Amino acid sequence: MSWIENEKAARRVIWAAAIAVPVVVAVLFMLPPAESLSEDTRRSLYLLPALNAVFNGTAFLCLTVAFIAIRRKNIPVHRAATTTALGLSVLFLISYVAFHLTTESTKFGGEGWVRTVYFIILLSHILLSATIIPLVLFTWLRGFTMQVEKHRRIARITWPLWMYVTLTGVIVYLMISPYYPV
């Protein structure tokens, strides 16, 4: 029996990830960036935020496909789309961590109402991206193990929040990318 089929083990893994990921991300912002990288390497790392926006945007599209598929009762397409969205979110996280381990944080340079809008979107994105981790994992697990009623109940909460997080990830990138030092 795999850990996915063992509900108690799966819950432990999900809660461990739900705690570890935000802690690791928070620690990243306290650590200085890697010093040993050449300037060319450091500059090339600024491709990662664009890649992250692609991961988020594609995950958003996958979640849209998943919603349409489940409305049409097409479970195989729904399952494939949500699993792909989950994989893209994991790739985003790996790329995000790699970028922030190696580069300094970029300051948003906008002024006035745009600055306020940016920080409202950024703050809501950060808070929801941290809290959505267990929701996404439990929702996916319950769907994967065909616990349909439990999956439906939690998916009604998870889906709009996950959509918001993926969409605002793209918006945050578009708003801050002009201020990257490239």
Structural features, described:
This protein is mainly α and 182 residues long. The chain has one domain (7-22, 41-179): Up-down Bundle (Four Helix Bundle (Hemerythrin (Met), subunit A)), CATH 1.20.120. 78% of the residues lie in helices and 0% in strands. The protein has helices spanning 7-28, 39-44, 47-71, 75-102, 113-144, 148-176. α3 (47-71) packs antiparallel against α6. It starts with 6 loop residues before the first helix and ends in a 6-residue tail after the last helix. The mean pLDDT is 90.
N to C succession of SSEs? HHHHHH
Q: Could you estimate the helical fraction of the residues in percent?
A: over 70%
Domain module tally: 1
Q: Could you give the distance between the termini? A: 50 Å
The second-level CATH architecture is: Up-down Bundle
Radius of gyration: 18 Å
Task: Please outline what is shown here.
The protein has 182 residues and is mostly helical. It is built from 6 helices and no strands.
Compile the SSE list and pairings:
Blueprint: H1 7-28, H2 39-44, H3 47-71, H4 75-102, H5 113-144, H6 148-176
Helix pairs in contact: 1-5, 3-4, 3-6, 4-5, 5-6
Quickly list its features.
single chain; 182 residues; mainly alpha; Four Helix Bundle (Hemerythrin (Met), subunit A); 0% strand; globular
